[in-house]
Structures are given as C-alpha cells and as structure tokens.
Amino acid sequence: SKRYTGLIEHYRARLPVSDTTRLISLGEGNTPLIRLENIPRLVGKDVEIFVKYEGLNPTGSFKDRGMTMAVTKAVEEGSRAIICASTGNTSAAAAAYAVRAGITAFVLIPDGKIAMGKLAQAMMYGAVIIQIRGNFDEGMRLVKEVADHAPVTIVNSINPFRIEGQKTAAFEIVDELGDAPDYHCLPVGNAGNITAYWKGYSEYAADGIAKKRPVMVGYQAAGSAPFVLGHMVDNPETVATAIRIGHPQSWDKAWTVQKESAGWFDKFSDADILAAQKMLSEHEGVFCEPASATSLAGALADLKSGKIPEGSRIVCTLTGNGLKDPDTAIGQCTAKPVTVDAQLDAVKAAILAGL
Ligand code: F0G
Fold it and tell me: Is ligand 1 within 6 A of the CB of residue 187?
C-alpha cells in the first residue's frame, strides 16, 4: 500500500508540476464524501445528497487544496514571501504552508470580523498578521497594490495555481461516484472555488473520465449577495464571515460557469444558514462552519421548490470545519450544559431530567 502524501502527488499528471518540483504538502485532499442518511427522509424527499467534507483538510478548509499548489509554485519560482487578504481560512492555510516551505506569510484580515479559530491558526503558524480597519474587499485591493511594489507572491484565488489545486476536489468526487453528480452546490464568496470545481469537472469530461458535468449552483448570504443582485455590494454583512464579500474577484469566471452549466445563484438569510448548520450537526453528525452550510440551505430550498427534482444526485461542498467558529456555534445552541456537583445523585438527577 502506498502512503497518501497529498493531492499534488495523487493528481500529479493533471497539475503543473515537474519531476523536480519540491512539493509543499501537508497531506491535504482525499476528504470524505459523506452520504446524508437522515436529512433527505426528514425533508420528505427521495434524493441522494452527499457532502464533501472539506473541513477535514489539514488547516480545516478547502483552501489547503489551493494553497499546496500556490505555495509549491511560489517556492519553485524563488519567492521568499506570500501575501493574501482573507476572511480567515485563506490566512490560516497561507500561514501553515508558508511555515512548511520556510518562507514568510503576510495576511490582511478584517479587524474583528474573522472567526476565532482562524485567528488562532494564523497566530500559531506565525504569520505576520495585519488587521485592517476595513473589510475583505478593501484588504484585497491593498494586497494587489502592495504586490506591485514588493517581492511577494499573492496567494488569493486570483493566483491561477490556487484554482489548479482546488479543481482536484471535483476529480475526487468523480473518482468516487464514477461520474459527476447531477447538481453541485456550494457557497460563493470570491467565486474561486466554483470556478475551480467547474474546471475539474470539465477536464474529466473532456477526457471521458466523467460522462457528464453537473449543474453548478452557487449560494450566497443575503447581506453579501452580489451574484444574486447582479452588482457589487459595498458593505457586505453576514454571520457567515467567511463569505462576507461584496466585490468577488472571479466575477466573470463565475458567470461563465453559470452559463456553461445552466446553473443559478441564490441567497439565504443568516437564520436559514445557521438552521442548516445546526441541522447537519444534529441529524448527521457533521459539523461545518456557517458559510459552508449555505450549500445545504440552498440545496434543500431548491429541492422544496422543485428547482432541483427528486431522484437527483446532489453534492454539497462543506468548505470549512465547524470548529473554526466556536462562538457562533455556541451562541445558537439553546440547550446549554448543566453544571452539577461531582456526586452520583446529582449526575443521576441530571440524566433523569434529560431523558
Ligand atoms: N466557504 C468558506 C469556509 C470560505 O472560507 C470561503 C472563502 C468560501 C466558502 C467561498 O469561497 O471565495 O472561492 O467563493 N474564503 C476566503 C478566505 C475568502 O479568505 O478564507 P470562494
């Protein structure tokens, strides 16, 4: 048996590396595709829903797929530093892969608007963290300006190697299911990931490994929904801070995906997003971060309306781990822990009360 050593090694022939490229990897990819057992029955639909649990990547999000590739290429090109703007997950991944490579990571994050787990990661991995009094979109603009004047490589998804790495998630799904699903649902912020999945599905279809390509459906938070509104949003807001983005970088690419796949965009309230996150945890034992649950919120809404027909096979990408944002998770749980004396009678009473 051969040890799994990350997605570049696994999909080497389909990625821009050579035999001499030094691979910067933490064993990312190869994430579980979990079939939902209880939720389809709960919503009364005869449908197959799989979740691609990207929260099990080394830094807890799909960003690791893009980052292994982007940092590998940055190092190959002689870069000594990388930079990104981030709502949190990209900064965590950039920081980790930079350490692995022995280079410096500069990360720009919106002050006070990233989940605690993500901040903890960037700090632990030793990134240079620059909190800006502004949002992600402003951070992105600054990163582009800085990179024009300094020897740093941008590792946001405008870096084409990010897309190359992230397309491997589509490969894994087809390798496992034997074909593409009918529908692929995912949360959309900058729209790098929807672009990457479409590239992966398209390459496999072109080579005959997949017989078809899925309909791509992108879901946004209502307060940060430029693709649904059809224009940029200046002051995006949502509890799903990962997708609190009003000026998506891959605007044109995402519209191409929508047209080529005959897909659509839709938006959901924070309440709907949190309800979907809770539902996944409570009924399937899968804990994702709020932004990730937008994909399931959307799939269930489109099943209800009939836009996605019964009998379909759906894959929802769960982009990040629920542990990334413990504050939001605890905040929405109504059943709080009970505290009792460390005595048998007290524990017995608590168990009886909970039966
Ligand atoms: N889900 C999560 C958990 C994310 O962190 C992101 C993006 C998305 C979905 C949206 O993906 O931008 O490719 O459409 N997070 C970026 C970051 C912006 O900085 O971590 P997208």
Answer: yes
Question: How is residue 192 annotated by DSSP?
Answer: H
Q: Give me the helices (H) in the chain, please.
A: 7-10, 39-42, 63-76, 89-101, 116-124, 136-149, 160-166, 168-177, 192-206, 226-229, 251-261, 270-284, 290-305, 326-331, 344-354
Task: Return residue ranges of the chain for CATH 3.40.50.1100.
Answer: 7-60+162-331, 63-159
CATH architecture designation of domain 63-159: 3-Layer(aba) Sandwich (3.40)
| 24-78 pLDDT per residue, tens | 999 999 999 999 999 999 999 999 999 999 999 999 999 999 999 999 999 999 9
Ligand 1 lined by 294 (C-beta under 6 Å): no
CA–CA distances in Å: residue 48 to residues 51, 94, 214, 287, 317: 10, 35, 14, 19, 14
Q: Tell me if 277 CB under 6 Å of ligand 1.
A: no
Calculate how far, in angstroms, residue 246's C-alpha sits from the geometric centre of ligand 1: 12
For residue 344, the CA-to-ligand 1 centroid distance in Å is 47
Q: How far apart (Å, rounded) are the C-alpha atoms in residues 157 and 159? A: 5
Yes or no: is domain 7-60+162-331 CATH 3.40.50.1100? yes
Query: pLDDT tens digits, residue range 325-345?
Result: 999 999 999 888 999 999 999
193 lines ligand 1 (CB under 6 A): yes
ipTM metric: 0.99
Where residue 1 falls among pLDDT bands split at 50, 70, 90? low
